[in-house]
Every structure is written in structure tokens, then in C-alpha cells.
Write a structure and sequence with these properties.
Elements (H helix, E strand, L loop, with lengths): L10 H28 L1 H5 L5 H32 L2 H19 L5 H4 L2 H29 L7 H9 L1 H19 L2 H6 L4 H4 L1 H13 L5 H9 L6 H40 L5 H29 L1 H23 L4 H28 L6 H31 L3 H18 L19
Helix pairs in contact: 1-3, 1-4, 1-6, 1-7, 1-8, 1-11, 1-13, 3-4, 3-6, 3-17, 4-6, 4-11, 6-7, 6-17, 7-14, 7-16, 8-14, 13-14, 13-16, 13-17, 13-18, 14-15, 14-16, 15-16, 15-18, 17-18
Amino acid sequence: MELTKGAPPSTARIAVASFIGTAIEFYDFYVYGTAAALVFGQVFFPTVSPLAGQLAAFATFAVGFVARPLGAILFGHFGDRIGRKRMLIVSLVTMGLATIAVGVIPSFETIGVAAPILLTLARFVQGIGLGGEWGGAVLLATEYAPARRRGLFSAFPQLGPAVGFVLGNALFIVLSLAMTREAFLSIGWRIPFLASAVLLGVGYYIRVRIAETPVFRAALEERAPAPVPFVELLRARAGVLVLATMSFVLAHTLFYTVTTFTLSYATTTLQLDRTVVLVATMIAVAIMGAATLGAAVWSDRLGRRRLCIAAAALAAVWAFPLFWLIDTRDPALITLGATGALLCFALLYGPMGAFLPELFPIRYRYSGASFAYSASGIVGGGVSPIVATDLLQRTGSTTGVSVYVAGIAVVGLLALLPLRETKDADFTDGLVTVT
């Protein structure tokens, strides 16, 4: 596939190309999380207790996060050597096909232990694909952006998670209302996964028509790419990589605590109707999407680091009201609790779309940004729902979960403090041929 050259694409085309993939990919990833919280324990682990089945379902959910750093290294290697565009297309197809596969895996009752094995394998491939998606999408946006508008441009792919989550959960709500419980457990939960085929086709069409970024083209013209970008990254910026990864754990922890653990906790322990909880979460995520855009734009003026530090401090405080409000069982207060946590997420996540790429030079920027984002998800997204479920079971209270979330926030704050402000950094590494 040849790179498209000529006139640069419009801002609208850049926005759509960087946004559409993350929206689709996160739709795929989040419908899995919702299904893991609602049905996978019963469909794929019916021979164990409800708690063990829930933990097993969350364990398969965690597999995707373990796979993501591997995908980041793989896609980052080729993204830093042959181009961002190609890898964005491959990551999209990888993720989409794996998601469709989840929708056709037979239940445990049909094929026995092969069912959870196939589920875990599909989830692993999902993680590989998403490991290459986010970094490539934010580079597509930021490497086209004017120097002082990288925060704004980086907001395009950052809106993908909110849209993907709302779209996936809206479909779950419609299906759960339209079907009996038996029909939903049998076939209804599969429909959101199979619907990914349509989204995959749309995303592929849009991405194939975008050109390679001018920053990367200029870099290839001036010097050869790094032979092994990830190795060069470790030699030159290992400390920055570790701090960047630690700083982003909080974002995953906040999001998946609200959207995955809380969904399970509210529908099982509190015995709330799942539609009520899904609607409350969707409202919070929709507000989060708008706040993500605002935080990204503010970071062009106020700085990435400053907003991220504020987000970590606020999250450490809100970790406790989050569950106080949920435990009231009042839908409005549940929505308020979730919204507060996801506003903290947005204040951190919005600036990170530009902050992480700005921390690394072009030669290993795809590798650095992708790995920091993906590795942070192992703890924040993969482990956190399991830890929260275990803490709840051991203590019978959500206080331990709040302490855990607050602790993650403090770790993120400490990781952010040594990092430099990057909003005015030279993003082209001094390449005079960039136009």
C-alpha cells in the first residue's frame, strides 16, 4: 500500500480518521467489559460459584490488558520504521476480527472447556490490536497538528472511548429491554460483537484514504529509522517511559472501576436493575467525553502536566464519595458518583493524548507512547476490577476499594511530578523539511 502524497488532508479528515478507529476499537473493547460484568460468568463459567465465575470473567477481561503492551511493541516497531498509517489499518482489522470472533464462540454448555479457552484467545488478539491503536491514532492527529494546537488535535482520538462506550452500552440496554433474560444470555449478548463487522468496514474505508503524517515522512527523508525502536527507547528514555506508564495507570483505574467493577457491584451486591446502572454510567461517560475535549484544549494554554497533576489530586479525594453515592442505590446519586470519577479521568486523559507523544522523539515515538499507554492498562484496567472484587468479598465494604483507588491516584501524582512540561516542546525534532 503506497502512502498518499500531495495536498495535506483537511482538519476534518484528520479528525475523522483519528477518531473513527479509536471509537470502533474502544467499542469493541468495552462491549467485552460489559459482557464480562453481566453474562460471561454464567455463559462461560457456569460450573463454579457466582463469585468465582465473576472473577474468572474479569480474568479473561484482564488478558486483553496483558496483551496490549505486546501489541504496542509490535505495532510500535513497524509504526516507527515504515509508518503510522499502515499500522493503524492493521490494528483496526486485528481488533475487529477478534471482536467478531467473540460473538460466535459457543457457550460452555455446548463445547465445554474449549469455550473459555477460545474466549481468552480472542481477548488476547483484541488486546494485541488495541495495543497498536491508541498510539498510532494520537500520532496521526498530533503529527498533523499546528505547533500550539496539539492538545486540540489530540482530542479527536481521545473522544473515541466515550463514543465507543456509549454506542456499545446503548445496544446492550436495547437488547436487555427487548429480550427475556434467557434470550439475552443465549443470543442477545452476541449481537454487539457481531455488529462490529459494520463498524470495521467503515473504519477501514476512512483510514485507507488518509496520508502518512508529514512529521514521519520528513524523518524518513533525513535519516534512517531506528533498527529496533523499542530497544533504542529503553536505552535513551527508560526513566521517562517508566514514569509515563505509572502516571497513566490512574486513568485506566478510574474508567474501569466505574464502567466494569461498579456495574458488577451494583447489579449483584446491591441488586440494582442493570438498565438503571447502564444508563447512569452512560450519562457519566457522555459528560466525560465533553470534559475530555475541554481538558485537551485547556492543556494547550495551561500545560499538560499541570492538569494531569490536578486530576490525580482530585481523584484521590473522590475515591471515597464515589462509593458513598453508589451505596445509596439512588439512580441520580449513582450518576453523580460516576460522573465525578469520570471527570477526574477526563482531566487526566484529555491532556495525555498530546503529553505522552511529546515525551518521546520521532524515532521511537510510536513505541514510547503506545507502550506507556498499554502497559499502564495492565494494572489500571486488567487488575483493578479483580482487586476491587476481591477487596469487596474480603471486607464486605467498598472502603477498601476506595483506599485502593486513592492509592493509585497518589502513585500517579508522584510519577507526574518529575516529568517535564511539554506543550511548547519541538515536536519535529528540528526537521527543517516538515511543512
